[in-house]
From TrEMBL:
Name of the protein in question: DUF2071 domain-containing protein
InterPro entries according to UniProt: ADC_dom_sf, DUF2071
PANTHER family: DUF2071 DOMAIN-CONTAINING PROTEIN (PTHR39186:SF1), DUF2071 FAMILY PROTEIN (PTHR39186)
Top-level taxonomic group: Bacteria
Gene3D superfamilies named among the record's database cross-references: Acetoacetate decarboxylase-like
Coiled coil spans: none
Pfam families from the UniProt entry: DUF2071
Amino acid sequence: MIEPITPTTPRPVRRAVLTQWWRDLAILHWPVAPHLVAPLLPPGTTPDTRGGVTYAGLIAFEMDRVGPGFGVPFFGRFPEINVRLYSVDGQGRRGVVFCSLEAARLAPVMVGRALGLNYRWARMRMTRTSSGVWKHSSRRIGGSPGRCRLAVEPHDEVADDDLTHWLTDRWGLHVRRVGRSLYVPNEHPPWRIQTASLLELDETLITAAGLSVDSGAPVSVVYASGVPVRFGMPRPV
């Protein structure tokens, strides 16, 4: 049985092995056929679907205060952009799967790759204006070339629709590491997701990650100012 979508984690993290802040998130999504996503997921997981489709996400934000569970920040604050999919395992745990992750700081890229995540070191710039949040990324090393330039304008209105909850109320990630599929739980307080307008988008990260989505505008564009996050010990799938 697949677990329900809930605003807080159904699996509280008793002992955090990693803590971080996510700040100024621009969250974009496109529908995609599940059979196109399935080959990209770790063994033991399948695409999580809603109304017969699943989704590919492009999430641009600033990572801050990344450190071990006792809260010592050693990676500082840096931009990140990731392409992610939605998964469910045999125990019914919903999660996300990262196809690619761009980060502007080399040290966390190396640590992330050692943990089985497809991090790439990128040249990135993030600037804020009075009406939007701008983000830019272009890869420096490794993998297929990719770029992303986007701008969103957050609104005061809360995004409280079912699709937004389905996409953002996620309490773990599925990853393949050293031949094993793992589930890594996370938790954070309920966060405020706002509606947003997409002002600009020019990206090739989704196709570079091996995905094909409708070339039209994303079906969901939202923004979040940020939230502190705690990750627990990996568990086998």
